[in-house]
């Protein structure tokens, strides 16, 4: 009995441990960046009495758009390396091969429009609820929209957010965390373990995004991404889907035309939801049929 309780406690710890490591990496990258800027200021020809002030570094140098973009890119790259090695260590040889198994071409051609439709559906839903939660959307606009699509955006930030982040987050949430969460729920229940696993990792994925608006739709997308990971038993379809969602943010001019009126917004949202769910369902069917031949 004691060993059983000990095992469950260990499983609970490992469900949350990757998130703790993620926070340590995040702050570690920031500290390294501050140290680099500090040393750069010391050896710079533009020395002044305040050149070594941490406060000055934080306000003048650390928050510069390009520096912020490089910090974001570095953080996601470290995530991929650390969590990729971690996931590899706890997976068997057959699991490792399966995790990076490329889906069939027809499946990919269905997943990409599903991701685009997913982003459009999110935009339609946000447009409809925006008037009811102005304060929450103000925080969301500052943290997400203005930062990524605003004047301070750069190709480095685009590359980090649109391509590197999806790989890092899928390895972390649908790979490492979903594996630990699944082990816990399969250990305490006979039925419903898969559903609870997908819902719980999606909840953590929503919390990870740090603001209410993004957290809510990240939770919903986390469920869909968790479902893809389970059905395909691979991270690659989720990565493709995730990249499609993120890069679709660049199509904002199109969405602004679609959502000019409430009626257009509702119709567009329903159509996009149908495309999202339909293409996702078909991708699973096509993949199964392809490999059953």
Could you write a compact summary of the structure shown?
With 293 residues, the protein is mostly helical. The chain has helices at residues 2-43, 54-62, 65-89, 93-99, 105-129, 134-149, 155-188, 193-208, 212-232, 236-247, 252-258, 262-292. Helix 5 crosses helix 10.
Textual characterization of the structure:
By secondary structure, the protein is mainly alpha-helical. Helix 3 (65-89) runs parallel beside helix 7 (155-188) and helix 5 (105-129) runs antiparallel to helix 12. The model is unreliable at 1-6 (pLDDT under 50). The protein starts with a helix and ends with a helix. Helix content is 84%, strand content 0%.
> What is the residue-mean pLDDT, rounded to a whole number?
87
Q: What profile does the largest beta sheet have?
A: none
Strand content: under 5%
Low-confidence stretches are 1-6
Radius of gyration: 21 Å
């Amino acid at each position: 009995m004691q060993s059983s309780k000990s095992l469950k406690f260990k499983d609970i710890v490992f469900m949350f441990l990757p998130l703790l490591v993620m926070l340590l990496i995040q702050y570690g990258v920031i500290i390294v960046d501050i140290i680099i800027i500090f040393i750069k200021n010391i050896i710079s020809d533009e020395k002044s009495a305040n050149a070594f002030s941490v406060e000055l570094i934080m306000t003048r140098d650390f928050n510069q758009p390009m520096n912020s973009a490089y910090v974001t890119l570095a953080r996601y790259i470290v995530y991929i390396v650390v969590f990729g090695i971690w996931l590899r260590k706890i997976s068997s040889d057959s699991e490792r091969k399966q995790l990076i198994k490329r889906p069939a071409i027809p499946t990919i051609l269905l997943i990409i429009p599903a991701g685009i439709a997913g982003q459009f559906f999110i935009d339609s839903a946000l447009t409809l609820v925006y008037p009811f939660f102005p304060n929450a959307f103000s925080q969301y606009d500052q943290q997400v929209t203005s930062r990524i699509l605003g004047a301070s955006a750069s190709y480095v930030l685009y590359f980090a957010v649109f391509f590197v982040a999806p790989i890092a987050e899928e390895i972390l949430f649908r790979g490492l965390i979903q594996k630990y969460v699944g082990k816990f729920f399969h250990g305490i229940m006979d039925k419903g373990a898969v559903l609870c696993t997908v819902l719980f990792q999606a909840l953590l994925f929503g919390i990870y995004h740090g603001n209410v608006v993004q957290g809510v739709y990240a939770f919903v997308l986390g469920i869909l991404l968790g479902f893809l990971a389970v059905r395909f038993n691979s991270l690659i379809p989720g990565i493709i889907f995730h990249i499609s969602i993120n890069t679709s943010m660049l199509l904002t001019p199109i969405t602004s035309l679609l959502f000019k009126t409430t009626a257009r917004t509702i119709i567009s949202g329903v159509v996009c939801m149908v495309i999202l769910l339909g293409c996702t369902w078909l991708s699973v069917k096509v993949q199964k049929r392809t490999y059953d031949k």
